[in-house]
TrEMBL record:
InterPro entries: Papain-like_cys_pep_sf, Peptidase_C12_UCH, Peptidase_C12_UCH_sf, UCH_AS. One of its GO terms (cellular component) is cytoplasm. This is Ubiquitin carboxyl-terminal hydrolase. It comes from Pseudozyma hubeiensis (strain SY62). GO terms for biological process: protein deubiquitination; ubiquitin-dependent protein catabolic process.
């Protein structure tokens, strides 16, 4: 894939309590959320999408529209690596480096989606994540049980949610300030608790993963 895993790795987040968050290596570069697509969640997404403006994307955010089935985990991985300090650990001319360079050559979401569809580099990344047991979910939200989204800190210090499917039109700024990179984890977790988890308090199928410094 081309990632220097001696510098960055994914870490399980064992809970939302401060003591458990303190176990996660800092600074966290990105946070991935796996959540259940419930009727209430679908309704919220539809409402947000209807109100959203077409993406005129921030130049510092690389957003991918997902048109490939069974790839939400891979899209989440790409969002995390492309929009964080982890991008500095991508080896030059590697599959990831080549893919991101192609994607950044256009601001058009459909063109970026086509780049992914036709990308041998993405196939390499997708097969690697699948072989490592990454969770996946279909693109068709009518049949989805679980889905991945990614949270990163923008250059202007805001919490940004990245989700390529479900009718999303681009990156979503969630109105939460992220002061330093070390603040990303608690700010993202607080947002997840007050929005995703509060919307479905009976659900237990939530999982959080942090991209941060490697233990190696």
């Amino acid at each position: 894939m081309g990632m220097d895993t001696s510098k960055f790795a994914f870490h399980d987040i064992y809970g939302t309590d401060p003591d458990l968050l303190a176990m996660v290596p800092q600074p966290v570069a990105a946070v991935l959320l796996l959540f259940p697509i419930t009727p209430s969640m679908e309704k919220l997404r539809e409402t947000e999408n209807a109100a959203a403006q077409p993406a005129t994307s921030d130049s510092d955010i690389l957003w991918f529209k997902q048109t490939i089935g069974n790839a939400c985990g891979t899209i989440g991985l790409l969002h995390a690596l492309a929009n964080s300090s982890a991008s500095d650990a991508i080896k030059p001319d590697s599959p990831l480096d080549t893919l991101f360079k192609k994607a950044r050559s256009t601001q058009d979401a459909d063109e970026r989606a086509d780049i992914l569809v036709n990308s041998k580099e993405l196939q390499t990344v997708h097969e690697a994540t699948a072989s490592q047991g990454q969770s996946q979910a279909p693109e068709d939200l009518d049949n989805v049980i679980l889905h991945f989204v990614c949270f990163v800190k923008s250059k202007d210090g805001e919490l940004v949610e990245l989700d390529g499917s479900g009718g999303r039109k681009g990156p979503i700024k969630r109105g939460k300030k992220v002061g330093t990179q070390e603040d990303l984890l608690p700010v993202a977790v607080d947002y997840v608790k007050e929005s995703y988890m509060a919307l479905n308090p009976e659900e237990v199928n939530f999982n959080l993963i942090a991209l941060g410094p490697s233990f190696d």
